[in-house]
Amino acid sequence: MGGSMKMTALSVMLLMCFAVRATDAQAGIVRTVVAKKFITSSVSRFGLGIEGMAVDQVGNVYAVGFAGDGTSGIGSVANARAQLEQNLLVKDQTASSSFNGLRFLPLSPSLSTNFDLRALAADVKSHSVVQFLRSKRDGRTRGSPFCQNSSMIQPNDIAVAVKSGRIYMTGGAYSNVNTVVGHGDLWMCEGRSSFTNTSRELDLEPVEAKLLGLFGLTNGIEVSPDEKTLYLTESFHKFGEPYSNFIWKFDIDQKTGLVDNKTLLVDFQKLDGSGHVDLDGMRCDVHGNLFVTKNGMNGETVKISPTGELLLRIKLPGLYETTNVEFGGPDGKTLYMSGKCIDNPDLGCVDMWDGNPAPGAAWALSALHH
Ligand SMILES: *[C@@H]1O[C@H](CO)[C@@H](O)[C@H](O)[C@H]1NC(C)=O
Ligand SMILES: *[C@@H]1O[C@H](CO)[C@@H](O)[C@H](O)[C@H]1NC(C)=O
Ligand SMILES: *[C@@H]1O[C@H](CO)[C@@H](O)[C@H](O)[C@H]1NC(C)=O
Known about the structure:
Layout: H1 2-27, E1 31-34, E2 36-39, E3 46-55, E4 61-66, E5 73-78, E6 88-91, E7 99-104, E8 115-123, E9 128-135, E10 141-148, E11 158-161, E12 166-172, E13 184-190, E14 209-215, E15 217-223, E16 229-238, E17 241-252, E18 259-267, H2 268-272, E19 279-284, E20 290-294, E21 300-304, E22 310-315, E23 322-328, E24 334-339, E25 349-353, H3 361-368
Parallel strand pairs: 1-22
Antiparallel strand pairs: 2-25, 3-4, 4-5, 5-6, 7-8, 8-9, 9-10, 11-12, 12-13, 13-14, 15-16, 16-17, 17-18, 19-20, 20-21, 21-22, 23-24, 24-25
Bound molecules: 2-acetamido-2-deoxy-beta-D-glucopyranose (3 copies).
């Protein structure tokens, strides 16, 4: 009896081993790493609204949600040497703005005479994207509308095709408990010419915003380093809870900037059963691998290849609810991830991970222009 019990226990163990192996094989063996805490609530100058991480032209990383719980302030997170640095870049004193996505643009030769920083920020409240320029004369950063349209749902996140001079924006109406197509959108604004080289860019009149499509809740957005592919996240909620999360991929028509050939890149329910966890920020490294933050409690960042394979999981023990992601640091390989700063001194607001073999695409582009 004892013997057969042992045999049974052994076969159960063997069966379990096989079961685990089979699952691993199906999912691929995915490496998991753990990020380090970088800014915790106790030292943070950011509040609950921290997100929209972005790297500037010299490698400093910034986020929105500086100085308070609102999102009308933009401040630095880390300098180009990957040291903690929390300084205000710009704050909308009227608090009539609510910034979300943030991106820095190169300064072309004509602009660099007068300015040393150029950024675009999505303003949820005014359904617009604001352009910021920092003057060399007085060091002040001033904003003016880059593009706007009152039928934009938000905008939320921004992706930039620097060479083509185009930006793409997402927006989702998250207050709806049951998502239908139309609760999220995709927009494009075309600058007057390339963001790297132009003589007409000093014209500060806003450009037209074009609606490219309606979806479920759209959030993370990124353009591949060759500017030929657009990646977009889409989520659906039922009774206020997410149940499906996708990354879509589109071809970008190089002439018009319009998108075509919608293809499913990742269905997270099929990938690992995580359709109930919303996706948030998305950034590429120079090889076109995507880094996507997953929003729920005990969030993580996943690395996805351009063909949709799950390559890596980055666990985020320091974050409460993960929001956005961006590369910075001296070699562009330091990944910063933001999460809501809450009243727990040990949790939030930024974690970092240093192990990617390649730099971020936005960082590399900025290094190129400096
Ligand atoms: C940039 O603009 C200048 C002046 O218009 C032009 O001569 C030059 O060829 C342009 N460079 C690129 C890379 O487009
Ligand atoms: C806003 O966008 C919609 C959809 O593309 C368009 O029909 C409308 O004309 C735009 N409004 C303005 C003021 O550009
Ligand atoms: C969409 O796919 C078709 C067929 O492969 C291709 O001919 C077309 O150029 C693609 N569209 C874009 C915008 O790349």
